[in-house]
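REQUEST ID: PR-0412
SUBMITTED BY: lab tech R.K.
PRIORITY: routine
TASK: structure prediction, single protein chain
INPUT:
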Amino acid sequence: MDVGVYRLRSFSISLLSSVLSSRPVTLDHSSSGASVVAIDNKIEQAMDLVKSHLMYAVREEVEVLKEQIKELIDRNSQLEQENSLLKNLASPEQLAQFQAQVQAGSPTAGPPAALQQNQGPGPTA
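STATUS: complete
OUTPUT:
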């Protein structure tokens, strides 16, 4: 995202610069405010262009985030199914030991020792 924002910002600055430099802007006090109106119109055009580019960048980022959310929901569902399967395969003693470890706050790098001892050939996910 940072590279995209940088490119958009760089593009917007160069675009604003080209819009403003397409006709030299001079403040002629002898005119009846026509140059002020021209400046206002160029600024408004540049702001509209920057706004549209920013909206495009935001839409792109929203699409990326939606895809990430979808992937995370799928992964969460997969982990919930795996957790349910493991709970069903564990004995009451193993579950009690696991609950004791969780309540004690001891970090576990893998399955509790009781689960590791009783693992054998079984269903694979």
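NOTES: Confidence is low (pLDDT under 50) at residues 119-125.
REVIEWED BY: pending
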